[in-house]
Amino acid sequence: MKKKKTDATKPDADNPQWTDKMFREAKPFNEAFPELASAWKRTRGRPKAAMPKVNTTFRLSQDIVQALKKSGLGYSVRVEHILREALEQGRL
Predict the structure, then answer these.
(1) Which single residue of 1, 27, 71, 91 could bond 86 by disulfide (Cβ 3.0 to 4.6 Å)?
(2) CA atoms of 61 and 77, how far apart (whole Å)
(3) What is the number of H-type helices and E-type strands within the chain?
(4) What is the pLDDT of residue 44?
(5) Does residue 9 have a pLDDT over 80?
(6) What is the pLDDT of residue 66?
(7) How far apart (Å, rounded) are the C-alpha atoms in residues 68 and 76?
(8) Residue 46 carries which DSSP code?
(9) Whole-prediction pTM
(10) Which has the closest alpha carbon to 68: 55, 56, 58, 78?
(11) pLDDT tens, 11-57?
(12) CB count, 10 Å around CB of 43?
């Protein structure tokens, strides 16, 4: 069965022309559908970390940096583990 094309110049019962009253009474999506709006906000992007990392800069001796980099990829994570262990043991 061939689908009938709609005439764009004729009124459409399923999608009527908006009136000034309709525009005045229109609500933003998050007010009209708060549950959907909050669900979309929760699912967008990466989940927030309970304890987010902080970007910081400090200077270290060149030999220390070279030794860390020689130990392979992920050396910044290893530095964090060393510092955390020292903190837990009360050495910091």
Answers:
(1) 91
(2) 18
(3) 5, 0
(4) 66
(5) no
(6) 92
(7) 8
(8) S
(9) 0.45
(10) 78
(11) 788 888 889 999 999 999 999 999 988 887 766 678 888 989 899 89
(12) 8
Cα–Cα distances in angstroms (integers) from residue 23 to residues 3, 16, 32, 36, 87, in the given order: 33, 13, 14, 22, 60
**CA–CA separation, 56 and 25 (whole Å):** 50
3-state SS, residue 36: helix
Hunting for tokens 């999506």 — which residue is that?
29
**Using CA atoms, how far apart are residues 83 and 80, in angstroms rounded to an integer?**
5
Residue written as token pair 């967008």: 44
Q: How far apart are CA 4 and CA 85, in angstroms?
A: 72
A 10 A CB-CB count for 65 gives: 13
Q: Which amino acid is at 60?
A: L
